Amino acid sequence: DSGVTQTPKHLITATGQRVTLRCSPRSGDLSVYWYQQSLDQGLQFLIQYYNGEERAKGNILERFSAQQFPDLHSELNLSSLELGDSALYFCASSARTGETDTQYFGPGTRLTVL
Amino acid sequence: AQSVSQHNHHVILSEAASLELGCNYSYGGTVNLFWYVQYPGQHLQLLLKYFSGDPLVKGIKGFEAEFIKSKFSFNLRKPSVQWSDTAEYFCAVRRNYGGSQGNLIFGKGTKLSVKP
Predict the structure, then answer these.
(1) A98–B99 CB contact, under 8 Å
(2) Cα A80 versus chain centre, distance
(3) Chain A residues with beta carbon closer than 8 angstroms to that of B51
(4) How does pLDDT run along chain A (114 residues), one tens digit per residue?
(5) Is B109 close to A42, i.e. CB distance below 8 A?
(6) Which of B44, B46, B96 sits opposite A99 (nearest CB)?
(7) How far apart are CA B39 and CA B89, in angstroms?
(8) Measuring CA to CA, which residue among B55, B49, B25 is closest to residue B36?
(9) In this complex, is the C-beta atom of A99 within 8 Å of any C-beta atom belonging to chain B?
């Protein structure tokens, strides 16, 4: 158990819908990262937040957005869902964002878009 | 663009065989290197990491990796695999911008199947 929690574990929804994935980082960690794991693209970095502020953006679609709240939990919002958005979405957290940081991953949310 | 290459998509070994999984990256600056393992149905777990110092890094469960800067490689090794090592292994790189960004860039992963 990494100490990073994600809810829900599974999500099944239809095209065009909007969903919210939630992540709680390890106690004391300030950085949260979101990754998408799909069969064709592998593990891709989406976005990073550090202490409530967006720090880095990766291959995140405009239909996707995220935020980190004052209690440091984070939410990833996916809207206008398409079949290709079906994937495993991982959240990771680290203490800060420095060179010696290690990221610890949550169990993931499996999203299925029908 | 920076990339991380894992040479083998799927490796099948018998128990007690030795393992070496290749990983190469294309970035020329200072990097941190990681190997993560994903057991079936589970999340990513850190096996080992390299930040600086001794290029031979020992991790959990008997795994080790060697950083060879001149070859841009960070290969994972284990002298004798067990059936319980069946999993998918991911190499990851983090570029250092002086600490401002921390995202990992992952390879495509190597599936390891160990036959009992």
Answers:
(1) yes
(2) 17
(3) 99-100
(4) 889 999 999 999 999 999 999 999 999 999 999 999 998 888 999 999 999 999 889 889 999 999 999 999 999 999 999 999 999 999 999 987 666 678 999 999 999 999
(5) yes
(6) B96
(7) 9
(8) B49
(9) yes
